[in-house]
Specification:
By secondary structure, this protein is α/β, with parallel strands linked by helices. Helix content is 43%, strand content 19%. The protein has a single domain (4-244), classed as Rossmann fold, CATH 3.40.50.720. The termini are far apart. Bound molecules: NADPH dihydro-nicotinamide-adenine-dinucleotide phosphate and 2-hydroxyethylsulfonic acid. NADPH dihydro-nicotinamide-adenine-dinucleotide phosphate binds next to helix 1, helix 4 and helix 6.
Length: 247
């Protein structure tokens, strides 16, 4: 029987690239996100390459939707908790509380809702792998990023704790913490301001979604006795959140 991979946030960026790569590796893909047209396009691309893809269109912030869509899945071998966003980049005294809610509800609560409904299926099967997409923001708080950094610090803590929780059940937990990846991330962070988004990558060759998918492909093909607990992936021109060498 083929393995099933659930990928949240598969309509764009890292999630889309990972879904394509995992589909090519032979996983049956369950691709999720809020944009139905993007999910449909992804399904066609995976299936035209000979893979298999089902799509589930829902918002990870809504627990009832998460349970309604993911509850009926009989088997999940791999869960890629990727759906997330940064919204806004400003000092704490100027932050928009709606942005804060979106980040905490998606990056933290959404990841938890998805994990809560999927992980018992893995526990019952005594096998599975959960990969959480954290960030360098999960260990390096930076100016203007208090709430995004807090949400990714939460992902870092949750990843470590869930690894311990699921250890005896034979379930691997990996956290991937990328630096700068050029996706729709900055466009979303700057609320659709393409000029500001583009400036993020001026003078830098950032990582791409495919680069992260490459790491995911390696991680999921390791033998059962071997796990990557935590991996930090950076563009060569970025040493840390505060150190980027722009040419
Ligand atoms: P994108 O904006 O390209 O993709 C984000 C994905 O998340 C989309 O598919 C989007 O789908 C989905 N998503 C967002 N909110 C929701 C929601 N409420 N319900 C369901 N799906 C949602 O950005 P990235 O690919 O870069 O981001 C993926 C992950 O990588 C995020 O967790 C991000 O924090 C993390 N990350 C990104 C880095 C970067 O530099 N790009 C670096 C480090 C970490 P839709 O809008 O269709 O719902
Ligand atoms: C995305 C990378 O540096 O904007 O998580 O936090 S950063």
């Amino acid at each position: 029987m083929k393995k099933v991979a659930v990928v949240t946030g598969a309509t764009s960026g890292i999630g889309r690239a990972a879904a394509l790569r995992l589909g090519a590796l032979g996983y049956d893909i369950v691709a999720t996100g809020r944009r139905a047209d993007r999910l449909e396009a992804l399904k066609k691309e995976i299936e035209s390459a000979g893979g298999q893809c089902d799509t589930l269109c829902f918002d990870v912030r809504v627990e009832e939707e998460v349970n309604r869509y993911l509850g009926p899945l009989e088997r999940v071998d791999l869960l890629l908790n990727n759906a997330g966003l940064a919204a806004g980049l400003e000092h704490i005294d100027k932050g928009d509380t709606a942005d804060w809610d979106a980040m905490i509800d998606t990056n933290v609560k959404g990841l938890l809702y998805v994990t809560r409904i999927v992980s018992p299926k893995m526990v019952a099967a005594e096998s599975g792998h959960i990969i959480n997409i954290g960030s360098i923001a999960g260990t390096e708080p930076y100016e203007n990023g208090a709430v995004y950094c807090a949400s990714k610090h939460a992902v870092h803590a949750i990843s470590q704790a869930m690894r311990a929780d699921l250890l005896a059940d034979g379930i691997k937990v990996t956290e991937i913490r990328p630096g700068m990846v050029e996706t729709e991330f900055s466009l979303v962070r700057f609320h659709g301001d393409q000029g500001r988004a583009d400036k993020t990558y001026t003078g830098v060759t950032p990582l791409t979604g495919d680069d992260i998918a490459e790491a995911i492909a390696w991680i999921v093909q390791l033998p059962r006795h071997m796990n990557v607990n935590d991996i930090v992936l950076m563009p060569s021109q970025q040493a840390a959140a505060y150190y980027t060498h722009r040419k």
